[in-house]
Amino acid sequence: MRALIISGGGSKGAFAGGVAQYLMEVQGYKYDMFIGTSTGSLLISHLALNKTPKIKNVYTSVDQNSIFSNCPFFVKRVHGYDQISINHFNVFKNLIKGRKTFGESQNLKNLISDSFSPEEFEELKAGNKDIVVTVSNLSLNEVEYKSIKEYDYEDFCEWIWISCNYIPFMSLVKKNGCEYADGGFGSMAPIEEAIKRGATEIDAIILQTEVTYFNRLPSKNVFSLITNLFSFMLDRIENQNVRIGKFVAANNDAIINFYYTPTVLTTNSLIFDKIKMESWWESGYSYAKFKNEKLNQIEI
User: Fold this and answer.
1) What is the pTM of this model?
2) Which of 25, 59, 98, 292 has the fewest CB atoms below 10 angstroms from its CB?
3) What is the rounded distance in angstroms from the CA atom of residue 281 to the CA atom of residue 263?
């Protein structure tokens, strides 16, 4: 059984889309299972439908307004780097309404249902492929994996949305009596889960560099401090997921093919820039092509 795994990574998901496009369209890989975390969960349903051009168009046209119904920060460019500063009015408005987060992401929820139709859902549910999204249950302190086979259309779209909710900047969702948030807080790269579900060969797209190449700039405000802190934590979670995945694979005779980003794409994956994301998609495609051609040369 072959599985495609796409880790969390916000706007860097565009790179993962390019890699997946090459693997499926050029290498001709057929996947029995698709597992995604956060931004990966947005991609996998469309990839399973073989509708790469459709999801590419979605990914390379979104901006902050496509994601946030109430964006808690401004984006400004300083000395060639994008930095975020607090949108005090929007944050205050959210807190006055009794929300538990600085911002809200209802627009992303609407985007998911607009781009993934009930007919497409039924096609996938009736098929042989398993599509699984990762969510973090904060109430039970557990990571949960939601398969398309187990839910109806409305519920599964909501699980996709929940998987992407990077709190405290995006919505905290209460569902089935529990509070849920971004799956990346518990499992950035769910390799172990894929093996538990029977995968014997895995293509894992990891949306960070294999080796750390940069030092973060000093925090300018509380929001940049929080994003730096969360990025640090999620990088550690992802590294741990990869190490555990390699160990489990070695003990289950499973093969893992890793696709890391070859360069640092961004230091803030909450910033959605159309031009950059279009470039990252093409970079992902080119990188996957280069890596596979190099592997073929070695085998020859």
Assistant:
1) 0.92
2) 98
3) 13
SS3 142: strand
**In this structure, what token pair is assigned to residue 189?**
């790269």
Distance, C-alpha 217 to centroid of its chain: 24
Q: Determine the pLDDT at residue 6.
A: 97
Residues 286, 182: Cα–Cα separation, whole Å: 29
User: Which residues neighbour 55 within 8 Å (Cβ) at sequence distance 6 or greater?
Assistant: 17, 42, 43, 46, 47, 115
Number of helices (H) and strands (E) in the chain: give both, helices first. Answer: 11, 10
242: nearest Cα among 140, 253, 250: 250
191 and 36 Cβ atoms separated by less than 8 Å = no
Q: What is the pLDDT of residue 197?
A: 96
Q: pLDDT tens across 110-146, in order?
A: 999 999 999 999 999 999 999 999 999 999 999 999 9
Burial 56-89 (b: 16+ CB within 10 A, else e): bebbbebeeeebbebbbbebeeeeeeebbebbee
